[in-house]
Amino acid sequence: MRFRSVLIPTDFPPLANRALGAGYGLLPDGGEVHLIHVLTCERGEAPPDLDARLRALVPAGADERGIETRVHVVDEAEAWSGIWHAAARLGVDVICMSTHGRSGPSRLLVGSQTEEVVRRARQPVLLVKGDVE
Question: How many domains does the chain have?
Fold first, then answer.
């Protein structure tokens, strides 16, 4: 399977950004990455520099490989629905996101957004496991 486009969601902490390298690495030269940040109602008003913060995450060498990066800031009630809706609207081939890698009872406390994306996505979802806490 060859991917031409990937959606990489982030809320900016280092753990969320672990998926960047894997997401860009999935693509051949000339692919397309959609970096997305979802503003949820509990976060309040968007900081004015979100587009610049997303563009700052583009790895060195992406331009030389001809990978086009598009940034998106969307408003949704839940992060998972913003990711899911954007993936469908943009027609991406794959979603690449990080996870805490927890299991058992601690899984119930975190990772519910990721779990919802995995359950609902129509395209493959690559989970990049972060450090287990």
Answer: 1
